[in-house]
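Ticket #4471: structure export looks truncated?
Reporter: QA, pipeline team
Priority: medium

Steps to reproduce: submit the single chain below to the structure queue and open the exported record.
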Amino acid sequence: MVHGKWKSILLAAFTVIWINEALAMNEEKCVYGELHVPASIAGFDRHQLEIRVFARDPRVADRPAEVVGKADIPGFKHQAGTETVEKFSVNLNQPYRADLSYYATFFILKDGVRTLHGQCAHAEGASCSVLGKAAPSELQVRFAEMPH
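Actual output as written to the record:
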């Protein structure tokens, strides 16, 4: 049994741990960084930039990921022969939760059809993990042609 002074110390320690975990789960987060469209990509104007941030519970296999942040930017343009660099920021529309996994997708659309997809510098392939211990909030995204 824990008595007197030790009981108070343990109770205070558990309270601090609980408060820190609660604050971490309610901390507002955002995904931000730079988008790069290489000079080798054909020029375009009046396209739409689509950014989505998804959250999924890694403990539940049969539940789809949920969109928790998004940005749709019309009138996005790029000039061939010149690298286009644009800054972006997407806020989450719900509190960050450390128990969820987050990833982002980046597309450029022409008339509603995806023509270019963004790849994160820190991740190989199409998956772009964001937020959390092993994934950054600040990203460098390079666009490439959609695979046919």
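Status: closed, not a bug. The export was complete when the record was re-opened. Leaving a note from the reviewer for reference: The chain has one helix and eight strands.
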